[in-house]
Amino acid sequence: MKLLSLSVLILFSIPFRAPECVCVKETHPSEEKIKADRRQAFDKATAVFEGKVVALNPYAVTLRLQKRWKGPSQNEIVLSTGAVPGFDGTPLPEECSYQFQLGEEYLVYAYGPAEKLKTSSCDTLTIKNAAEEEKGLDQIERHETLSEKSNEQAW
User: Fold this and answer.
1) What are phi and psi of 104, to 5 degrees?
2) Phi and psi angles of residue 85, each rounded to the nearest 5 degrees, phi first
């Protein structure tokens, strides 16, 4: 009984820390390192695109593509958030999943099978922070611009 009490006391005395999502990047990488890392991420990704969030729920986010460097030819891509139903049915988000906002635009590196693509906070940029990444991607593969007209036909 004393051992159990001691174990509980130790357990509750250890401060609880929520897991943190950390994107480890060098502080001053060389241009060659940036290019090599971008190329590696591009090669590993199933899809690389720029898109606007048009639908969002705890389990999936739908983006209407504006530019595509790599990936399926459809004009909209659905990404899994990785969330799962919790004990009470409330969605439990996956650790390190990106928190998309409806109506916002993003540059996304997506991974996994086409029917269950996912991304993370380390593989997604808001468009306002993505200009250099877009230029670098165009050096690897010229992007395809998806017109509003072709996006409207997807509906």
Assistant:
1) -85, 160
2) -65, 135
Cα gap 66→148, rounded to integer Å: 8
Q: Spell out the domains of the chain, with CATH numbers in brackets.
A: 24-145 (2.40.50.120)
- Alpha-carbon distance of 40 to 119, in angstroms, equals 15
Neighbour count for residue 53 (Cβ, 10 Å): 17
pLDDT, tens digit only, all 155 positions of the chain: 544 443 433 434 344 334 456 777 778 889 999 999 999 999 999 999 999 999 999 999 999 999 999 999 899 999 999 889 989 989 888 887 889 999 999 999 999 998 889 998 889 999 999 999 999 999 999 999 986 544 444 43
Prediction pTM value: 0.79
Q: How many Å apart are CA 135 and CA 90, to the nearest integer? A: 40
Please name the helix (run of DSSP H) or strand (run of DSSP E) that holds residue 136, with its range, or none: helix 131-140
